[in-house]
């Protein structure tokens, strides 16, 4: 049997890999005046499965709408990126969305998927390199929101692919820092293809995060299961409920877990008191107009070049360049 060629190389991209002290971070958030837990803790195995289920829900439009835009405008997007470019994907996951771009860029020579989940990254990169044997795949295990490095590339310039409207999960200061860091990474001549969710009818937004099947509710409350399992907490999930709503003044969806009674929770060796109605703020998802996002990008060193939307103007993909 002929061996299958896999042209993939593996790299660790962060200069120092420090393990986050989950216990200290979560405890500090729960003891704050307004309780919070970082959304990065959603994604244990069950949380990742639930999020995949969310993307398939009829109410949750972002994933399918972004895929529609990518497929409809793939040739225009490919022309903007150019073939003499290394395509770098932040948070590559299974590298599913990038396949549309690779089909439209047959001359592309280098692809650099970056993801913090090392095992999943390497598995996905190997599969992709077999599927596209002409492509040099450099899989980089790194946190792309922190300083990282990638191997030396042959292509003249770089283009970052950042789909999924993940930019909406950054708070304003984090967003500015991330975009400035990305511009520095790309250098003049580099481009950023980024998915951005748009402001729209509040009913559409609220339905997307309060689906009729309750999957988003389970996704949110699964966070407490993880804290129980990994941090020896004793949250009773029946004493909390999912609450998500669009905050028009701040232009964002907020997700919370609401305490249904006065109660005390033990986490490790500490106790945390909740009053009835008090919440744990678990996620923000900012929405933008085209003009708002382009103004933010311009302040961070980018020049807006192209924008593509669906017919309802629910979602947008921007191509920005560093000049």
UniProtKB/TrEMBL annotation:
Top EC class, one word: transferase
Listed InterPro entries: EgtD, EgtD_Methyltrsf_superfamily, MeTrfase_dom, MeTrfase_EgtD-like, SAM-dependent_MTases_sf
Keyword rRNA processing: no
GO molecular function: L-histidine N(alpha)-methyltransferase activity
Domain Histidine-specific methyltransferase SAM-dependent: 23-320
Gene3D superfamilies attached to this UniProt entry: Vaccinia Virus protein VP39
Keyword Methyltransferase: yes
Enzyme Commission (EC) number: 2.1.1.44
GO terms of biological process kind: methylation
SUPFAM superfamilies: S-adenosyl-L-methionine-dependent methyltransferases
Record's keyword terms, sorted: Methyltransferase, Transferase
Protein name: L-histidine N(Alpha)-methyltransferase
Organism of this sequence: Fictibacillus barbaricus
């Amino acid at each position: 049997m002929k061996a299958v060629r896999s042209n993939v190389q593996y790299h660790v991209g962060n200069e120092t890999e420090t393990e986050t002290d989950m216990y200290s971070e979560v405890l500090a958030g729960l003891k704050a005046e307004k309780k919070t837990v970082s959304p990065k803790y959603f994604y244990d195995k069950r949380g990742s499965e639930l999020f995949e289920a969310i993307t398939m829900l009829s109410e949750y439009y972002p994933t399918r709408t972004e895929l529609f835009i990518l497929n409809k405008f793939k040739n225009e997007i490919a022309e903007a990126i150019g073939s003499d470019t290394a395509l770098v994907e932040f948070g590559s996951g299974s590298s599913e969305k990038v396949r549309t771009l690779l089909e439209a860029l047959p001359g592309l020579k280098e692809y650099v998927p970056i993801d913090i989940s090392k095992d999943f990254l390497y598995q996905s990169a190997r599969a992709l390199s077999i599927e596209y044997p002409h492509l040099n795949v450099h899989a980089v295990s790194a946190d792309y929101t922190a300083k990282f490095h990638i191997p030396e590339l042959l292509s003249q310039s770089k283009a970052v692919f950042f789909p999924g409207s993940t930019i909406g999960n950054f708070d304003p200061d984090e967003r500015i820092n991330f975009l400035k860091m990305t511009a520095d990474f790309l250098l003049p001549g580099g481009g950023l293809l980024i998915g951005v969710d748009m402001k729209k009818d509040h009913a559409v937004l609220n339905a997307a995060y309060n689906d009729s099947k309750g999957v988003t509710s389970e996704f949110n409350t699964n966070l407490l299961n993880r804290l129980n399992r990994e941090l020896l907490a004793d949250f009773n999930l029946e004493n909390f409920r999912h609450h998500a709503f669009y905050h028009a003044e701040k232009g964002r969806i907020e997700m919370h877990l609401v305490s249904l009674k006065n109660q005390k929770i033990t986490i490790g060796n500490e106790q945390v008191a909740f009053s009835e109605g008090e919440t744990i703020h678990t996620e923000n998802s900012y929405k933008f107009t085209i003009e708002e996002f382009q103004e933010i990008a311009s302040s961070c060193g980018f020049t807006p070049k192209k924008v593509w939307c669906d017919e309802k103007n629910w979602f947008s993909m921007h191509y920005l360049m560093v000049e």
